[in-house]
Structure formats: C-alpha cells, structure tokens
C-alpha cells in the first residue's frame, strides 16, 4: 500500500515537473506539424482506432539554436511524451552555445539521450518496486492463468503496473546551431533533406539510417554480442519491434535474457545510443527538412510498394508548399493524403489491398529553408509572358506502375486576354475561347533523389526507368458506375475556381 502511494506521488510530481520544463521556450514557426492516428479497416471501408495516439513531437527555438523531433511510441505514449519533455530540457536549457564545434555538439547529443533514458527508468523505480512486491504475494511455479479467483485483483493490479512500465519509442531529432544541421536518430523514423538545385530540381537525401534487421552494421553489432544474426534477420523483429535501437522498453533492456533469441547476448542488444550525422552547413540552402515516423512512409509503401516512399513524400510536401500558406497545413495535408491513399488502396480490393488492412500512427514535421510557400494560392501570380498560372492536380505513380490516388499539382499557363489565342488576336471574354497549353508551356515535375543506400534520378519525362512521375493510361478494369461515369483522375476544381474568379473580375471591370 505504501509503495503504491509513493508511486502515485512520484508520477504526479514528475508530470508537474515536466509541464514546467518547456513553458518558457519559443515554438519555432519555421516548422509545421501534421499527424494522424492509427486505423484498422473493416470490409466495408469503415475504420476504428486500435489505441490512442502514441507519437510525440517537439519544435522549439532558443536564440539561434533550433530543436525538432518526432518520436514513434509503442505500447503506450508514456515514453514518447517523457522523451519529448526531457530531451528538450537536456538540449535547450543552456547546454548548447554558438561557441560549440561539431565534436562538442555530438557529445552533447549523446549525453542527452543517455540522460533521458536513465531518467525514464528512474521515473518508474517505484512502479518496479510495486511490481516486485505484488509478485512476491503470488504462489511460485503456477502460471497466472491457473491461479485461483482469490488472486484476481492482485493480477489486475500487476497487469496495470506492467502496462505503465512497458513500451518505448524511436526518435529522430534535428538540431540547427550556427546554421549547421545535425541529425540524431534511434530506430526507424526518418529525416529527409530536400534541396532545390540550380536547374530547378528537388534533391532528396535521407540523412538518417534505419536501425532494423536489414541494416548490416546493426547485424554486425548484434553478432559481436554473440547473437545468431541469421535467425534475427529471418525473424525481422526484436522483442516484437522491427527497430534494433529504441528508448525505454524495460523488458528489452533488463529482461532480454528471458527472450530465447536474445538470451546469449553479452550485454543489452537493444540500445538507445543515437547515430549522429552532421554538422551539415545550411548556407545558401533553399528547400525543406522532413522528419517523419515510420507509420507515414510504411503506409505509403504498403499502398504503392517499397522503394519510392521518400521521393513521393517529398513530392507531396513540395506540392503542398505551392498550394498552402501555412506550414502546419502543409504537413497535415500530406499526412491526410497518405491516409487517403492507404484507405483507397484497401477499398479497391486490388493487388496491394492485402497490405493495407491497417496502419499505425503517423507524424510529419516540416522545417522550411527559404522554400517558396503559397505560390499557387496567390491569384496575383503570373508567368513572365503575361499569362496566368492555374493549378491542375494530376495523379502520378511509382516505378511499380501502381495506379494510386497520389497527385502532383502542375501549372496550366493561360494566355492573358490581350495575347494571341489559337493563332488569332482576341479581345473576347473567357467563356468565348478555349484555353490552350502550348508545347513551350508544358509543365514538368522533376525530382533527383539520393539516400544512404541508393542513388537514383527521377523525372516526369518518364521512360519507366526509375522515374517518379509518369503519364499512364487508365487500366482496362476501370468501369463506369451506375450513372455511366468513371471515377475522375484529373482534378480541375481549382482550375475552374480560379478561371471563374478571373472571368468574373474581368466582366465586372469591362462593365464599368
């Protein structure tokens, strides 16, 4: 009874202390956050949540130091929320100054993650003591499922405590100091640095490494501990998770010897040591940084197949930059689009629907580096030739050739009223002419992508050889509905809206 009271008091004290750690920090408005909760689909397309949101995130600035992070929690949100609060306190309360060099920053980051994990386990000390006390009151050698009814309340208390101390989180953290970018990652969340190049392309670079059983460096590390990496690779999971590094997870840190596959390990096989990249100079960079939990890119991979998720998500972000005027809206629009793609793939009943029966929580953080925002939302924008830019949403597909709901917004450049139209001078109003798109005005969308493992180039001039954007024929299986219509695949809504607005303005002006 005393230990339970102590545990409650400590938890309440920790919560109160946490809420005060970041109260005085400034939220960075150069970034945006979008998120979506997990979903399990029913046959009719309806969905339910399997659990409450377990992800966490942060985005703060202190003078000229910027800190961002997303945390993919599992088996509860306690660890991800703890890390969100405590890591901020370990990095933005005076530990980093402009005089720090690259080596100093890496050392501070390593120390911060170490302190955070140790602090978390200290925060559950009383719960662990209470667990041990409850275990001592149970008969030894008898499985819990076979215990008499008189132990039921005791088992319920034990189960509740085990839920409190279970769980963990992966982490992807970005730090900007002295205009240099540092990335620290643990697990399977990702960081993408997307930069505009001189020729107008978008270079997409994954600046983090997935810590999974497919990572040869991680397999080597595990082999040095005496583990059978062939068996681990075949299993694909470590303690029920596909990440070989994570924060928290008491069972994997202190009870791993109870897991048959991990029992030969000389020391902890699952670690919370981050892999750090940087500092990378951001001088002269125009583009954006993407931090995302694996729920986002895995949902897209489930729908479209593996291999192009990074490039597709970067393309979606770039598209929303053009359409939106706020970064939070940019990030949320991308998350919502991925969720729609995933659901539509399930409902379609096609080849990949079996991979889309559920998805996990997904979080996306976007940090802007002078990338133009809201260009297509400004009705005053016009090309140099005096025409008018109108957005049209056109679907694109990955190299696997899967027809998806994902789209990229292209620009139809419409000549102004005083320009040549269809070879003739025209002073007529918009409803008397048909807008044309000349070859010289043909829109293109290009991406050049690199990451730690592969190097590829993508272009809308697609020849099917590794290109991201493709024009594609509709599949022969696309059938009319009961009204004789097929599902639209090119969205002209925004085009017509802006065309109507312009035409109305011109009509009013002519009447005056």
In short:
Helix content is 33%, strand content 22%.
The total count of strands amounts to 21
The biggest sheet, with number of strands, parallel, antiparallel or mixed sense and barrel status, is: 7 strands, antiparallel
* Helical content (DSSP H or I, runs of 4+): 25-40%
Number of helices: 12
The assigned structural class equals: alpha+beta
So what's the overall shape?
A: globular
Task: Report the average pLDDT across residues.
Answer: 78
What ranges have pLDDT less than 50 throughout 5 or more consecutive residues? 1-20, 379-390, 394-476
Instruction: Report the C-alpha radius of gyration, rounded.
Output: 27 Å
Portion of residues in beta strands equals 15-25%
